[in-house]
Amino acid sequence: MIKILFFGDIVGRPGRAAVKRFLEENKESIRPDLVIGNTDNLSSGRGPTVKKCDEMIEMGLDILTCGDHIWDQKEIIEVLQKKDGKLLRPDNYPDICPGRGVACVDVKGKPVLIVNLIGRVFTTEGLNSPFVALDKILEENKEKTVIVDFHAEASSEKVALVQDFKGRISAVIGTHAHMQTADEKIYADHTAFLGDAGFCGPHDSVIGVEPALSIKRFRSGIPLQFELAEGPTQVNAVLLEIDEKTGRAVKIERIFEVYE
Questions:
Q1: Cβ distance 161 to 134 under 8 Å?
Q2: Which residues does residue 58 pair with via DSSP β-bridges, in sequence order?
Q3: Do 19 and 260 meet the contact criterion of CB atoms below 8 Å apart?
Q4: CB 6 within 8 A of CB 114
Q5: pTM for this structure?
Q6: What is the arithmetic mean of pLDDT over 29-40?
Q7: What is the rounded distance in angstroms from the CA atom of residue 74 to the CA atom of residue 257?
Q8: Would you state the pLDDT for residue 252?
């Protein structure tokens, strides 16, 4: 079996610290073969930076995925342009965008394909269809184990994607909403699914933000400079077990840890 540990959106310094603690305390007992983390909010909630990506790789993350905040830090383009870099951007951004949305990693002597996609409902304009993008990826790559990070707002879009591709890929893990859902299942005895992995960061917050600021925004409608909350932190993650011979998902388990 291949064990894959997937961290939901890692939000700022609190999220990075929580992931580090989780790995220090649990990596030996879990013994994952591959560690993936969504870094869309890695640097103060606004995309990844070069330094913060290096920090996550040093912690033990093998692949970093992203989402709609991928372009927030201009310096990240140099990371995306590295041929064998570990940072992915959603594959269904237009082809003129730098970077790649697919990585193939050797795990226990078997190729594992990691795909990063972004939804089009309530998100960014000008995106290509994630459904068409995944069709093309599967046509061009024959790996049996395929893990998809689908960074999307609408739960309907996430469920439609897994319904369309069930039996052809190993797992679809949703990110972006920062609220871990309880809908994990394995479709067609093959494809694992979780609507949203949640997030790693401030536990007593509004999806990572200081509650008072978020409440003020909702009450007034006036744009504010958000700040990340302090205090206890949380780790939201997913543990997958995949049959390396067939690519079939055998187990999906949600992880929710809180650190005082």
A1: yes
A2: none
A3: no
A4: no
A5: 0.96
A6: 98
A7: 33
A8: 98
Of these residues, 69, 151, 178, 190, which one is catalytic?
A: 69
Write down the mean pLDDT value for the chain.
96
The residue type of 150 is F
User: What is the tally of helices (H) and strands (E) in the chain?
Assistant: 6, 13
The residues with which 1 forms a beta bridge, in sequence order, are none
| 112 has a pLDDT exceeding 80 | yes
Q: 3-state DSSP call for residue 69?
A: coil
What type of residue is 138? L
pLDDT band at 104 (very low <50, low <70, confident <90, very high): very high
For the segment 41-79, what is each residue's pLDDT rounded down to a tens digit? 999 888 999 999 999 999 999 999 999 999 999 999 988
Query: In Å, what is the CA distance from 248 to each residue of 118, 131, 144, 163, 238?
Result: 23, 21, 8, 15, 16
Dihedral sign for Cα 119, 120, 126, 127, please: positive
DSSP secondary structure of 150-189: EE-S-HHHHHHHHHHHBTTBSEEEEESS-S--S--EEETT
In this model, does residue 4 exceed pLDDT 80?
A: yes
**For this structure, is 203 an active site residue?**
no
Alpha carbon distance 232, 18 (integer Å): 9
pLDDT reading at 82 higher than 80: yes
Could you count the other beta carbons within 10 Å of the beta carbon of residue 92? 24
For helices 130-140 and 155-165, the axis angle rounded to 10 degrees is: 30
Q: Which of 210, 209, 207 is nearest to 196 (CA)?
A: 207
CATH superfamily of 2-259: Metallo-dependent phosphatases (3.60.21.10)
Q: Where are the domains of the chain?
A: 2-259
